[in-house]
Amino acid sequence: MPHAVTQPKSDLKPAETLTIQDVANYAGVSKATVSRFLNRGGEQLSADVEARVAAAVRALGYSPSPMAQALKRGKSRLIGLVVADVSNSFSVAVLRGVEKACRDAGYMVMLFNLGNDEQLEREAIRSLSAYRVEGFILHTLGHDAGALADAAQLGKPVVLVDRKVGDAQVDLVALDNLSAVHEAAAHLLEAGYRRLLFISEPIKAISSRNERARAFQNFIAEHEDSLGGSVFEARTGDDAALDEALRALRRDAGEAPVAVLAANAVISLRVAAAAARLGWQLGTDLGLVGFDDPEWAALVGPGLSTISQPTDDIGRAATNCLIERLQGAQLAPRQVLLPGTLVKRGSTRRG
């Protein structure tokens, strides 16, 4: 004899708080029966029971938790993303690329922002692991190899973005810094600037900053007959030291045109502000090319010339590398270096 589905009561729970037990009670079946219906689409259930459970699910508006279902299968479909500083335009742009690639592949992103605090790197791994992320994409400060060791202990694959961590044998996706610096410096040389200053935040052990500084120094050495240059590390908040470094650049150059190659968007903005304090016109009194091409670059002064990083491609490539590892790819550690694009604007026009 067919069983009638229990009629809904007036005090039904909101759909978002319903559980399998609620569906089972409504349909007059066990939790295991509802679970079989949800996971196998009614397979191994009689037509009568399948109809009762389906009617209960529709009547209650029940929707199973994707996370709960994924965990039952042993997969969370979560990717842990750790970024050095979410207020940095590069980090935000890479995040967008990671999110798009994850969405396309059926994964979700869990973000941990270090806020430039290197003490949080290992905590980031522990915190994200508590949510059972399947792997990590790390854009860290590049100091703490212990964070990578923690991830390895958990058996989770890791892909690094932008910065190496010691001699860690893991996949890395980054800008081709050597080519990018060469292109930027060659543009300044061609534009007629003869004394250059590479300005970076404190370089420390951050691999991308080291690579850019070394590439700059090599370019200067290769063109020593027509070009001079040096490196300056600008500490956060010390505008007086930055102003003095720019004055020294002009003083030492004599009548030769001078320019700055800024290691990132933060430094580009600080140099533009310093030029304004000194009463200098970008392009004429001081050339400027900066790494990263944030939306505001075209709006500062005559427009800032930049090296635009392929941030979306970097985020997507890092995600694809990680998903390949999650799918069982047994490959040697890969280094994926992507080209930048020189964007010429008024800050490198001398006349």
From TrEMBL:
InterPro entries from the xrefs?
A: HTH_LacI, LacI/GalR-like_sensor, Lambda_DNA-bd_dom_sf, Peripla_BP_I
Q: Does Hydrolase count among this protein's keywords?
A: no
Q: Which UniProt keywords apply?
A: DNA-binding, Transcription, Transcription regulation
What CDD domains does this protein's entry cite? HTH_LacI (cd01392), PBP1_RegR_EndR_KdgR-like (cd06283)
Keyword Transcription regulation present in the record's keywords: the answer is yes
Instruction: Tell me where in this chain the HTH lacI-type domain is found.
Output: 18-73
- Name any one GO molecular function: DNA-binding transcription factor activity
Task: State the source organism's domain of life.
Answer: Bacteria
Q: Which PANTHER family match?
A: LACI-RELATED TRANSCRIPTIONAL REPRESSOR, RIBOSE OPERON REPRESSOR
Q: What is this protein called?
A: 2-ketogluconate utilization repressor PtxS
